[in-house]
Amino acid sequence: MKKILYIAASVFFFYSCTENFEEVNTNPNLIDQISSGTLLNEILYNMSNNNVRNYYDITAELMQVKLPYPSFYGGRHRYEILDNTGNSQWNASYKWAKNIREMLSIAEANPNDANYKAIGLTLRAWIYSNLTDSFGDIPFSEASKGDEGGVKPKYDTQQEIYMTLLQDLEEANALYAHDKPMLYGKEILFDNNTRNWQRFTNSLHLRLLLRISNVYPEAYTKMVTLLSQEDKYPIILDNSQSAALKVTGITPNLSPWSRALDFSNGQSASAFFVDHLNELNDPRLEIYATEAKDLEGKSIGYVGIPSAYVGDNSQFKFSPSYMNNKQVVAPMSIPILMHAEVEFIKAELAQRGYFNSNNAAQYYVNGIRSAVSYVTGKEVPASYLEQEKVKYDGSLEQIMLQKYISLYFTDFQQWSEYRRTGLPVLPTTSSMLNDAKMPNRLLYHSDQKVYNPTNYSEASQRIGGDNMNAKLWWTN
């Protein structure tokens, strides 16, 4: 019962929506009676919180969305990956994957918990796909088993992990029982709507299949199957069905930034990101960034600082656009997998000739409409879609630019899609480290060298060394 006591102690706040919250908190004997639902909200909140913080700290810098300013040398925007850069993702993923393992164990023992098992499998695929996409080969099949003696787990290959996750998502889709109620209180992602959970499951399945499509040709056939059988494989069809965690600002569901100023202070928007949004007259820009000012304090519109700029900051005769901290003041939303991403997946498949090739332009426009309305709360202006730089020109580059913008705030997805496609093309400078090559991965947690040295060494040798340039299985 030690593992249950440990897990239960951390989840009481998020169990407060259930009728027996008061009883559980006043009667410690009920700790042994936790359900699969008890663990759900804590997992959802903490992993979403962790992922958006790592978007901000890692992805947004690598993908030239923002950068610390001033920044004379080093930094992730200059491709500096340190031993500890990935530690928070490693720690959080394994912490909450352990709770998912417990959730699945409880659900499998109860025939009425099929929906919770489906959700657990989906969340496991979400967490481990991000983890393996960040590090490559990782502990998986033997991970999170410290209570069973598995404190030195082997590292599974990325291919093995992906094959298991795809099977899990297939199983999860078949498990959903919409006629069975969610018994253990309200969950905070879909408010117990199992149909939306199923749509998330299958949309995540699409994401993972596309991710490995360069090395797993069967992925295209399976994606077409998923998209062609709505009755069997429902997917996200609009923003109301998107997987986005609503942060209310009511304790304990608080913003990942306890002080909004920490989001903007010393954090300039990148010129690459701002320039593209300016060129497109994009209505999202005012949400993402503040206006720049000249030396007299007058507004000069939106102007970013080049990522990995060369020289000191005296060359910039203005105060740049900073990250707009209003977007992290609750109520706010943390995207996990949005409708726009599904539409851009369709657009890419159509552009490549695998699925409804005549509809590529429509899927592309659908993605833009959904992405803009999610951020601004308004329909995209017709004038935006009529611009020459926005009109679909048949290229993958155009699809991927809009997808890149739409993946703002979404964990590691911009970086992962860049590593898969090389798009959008990012400028380089002479101050970039690593010969100005985009890092392929983060470095393993340093604790692995101490506590799991044999398996760490074997995995490191297998991938070509524990360095940022080691290739992932699916990378372009």
In short:
Helix content is 45%, strand content 5%. The N and C termini lie far apart (46 Å).
Question: Secondary-structure map with pairings?
Answer:
Elements: H1 2-9, H2 21-26, H3 40-62, E1 66-68, H4 87-108, H5 114-135, E2 138-139, E3 155-156, H6 158-175, H7 194-211, H8 218-228, E4 243-247, H9 261-264, E5 267-269, H10 271-279, H11 285-288, E6 293-294, E7 318-319, E8 332-337, H12 339-351, H13 360-376, H14 382-385, H15 396-406, H16 413-421, H17 447-451, H18 453-463
Antiparallel strand pairs: 1-5, 2-3, 4-8, 6-7
Helix pairs in contact: 3-4, 4-5, 5-6, 5-7, 6-7, 7-8, 12-13, 12-15, 13-15
Q: What descriptive keywords fit this protein?
A:
476 residues; mainly alpha; two-stranded antiparallel sheet
Average pLDDT for all residues: 93
What is the beta-strand fraction?
5-15%
Strand neighbour order, sheet with most strands: 1-5
Give me the secondary-structure category: mainly alpha
Give the CATH level 1 class of the domain at 2-233 and 444-463.
Answer: Mainly Alpha
Overall form:
globular
| Biggest β-sheet description | 2 strands, antiparallel
Quaternary organization: single chain
- Quick one: how many beta strands? 8
How far the N terminus sits from the C terminus, by CA atoms, comes to 46 Å
CATH T-level topology of the domain at 2-233 and 444-463:
Serine Threonine Protein Phosphatase 5, Tetratricopeptide repeat
Helix-strand string: HHHEHHEEHHHEHEHHEEEHHHHHHH
Task: Work out the radius of gyration.
Answer: 22 Å
Quickly count the helices: 18
CATH architecture of the domain at 2-233 and 444-463: Alpha Horseshoe
Low-pLDDT windows of residues: 1-13, 15-31
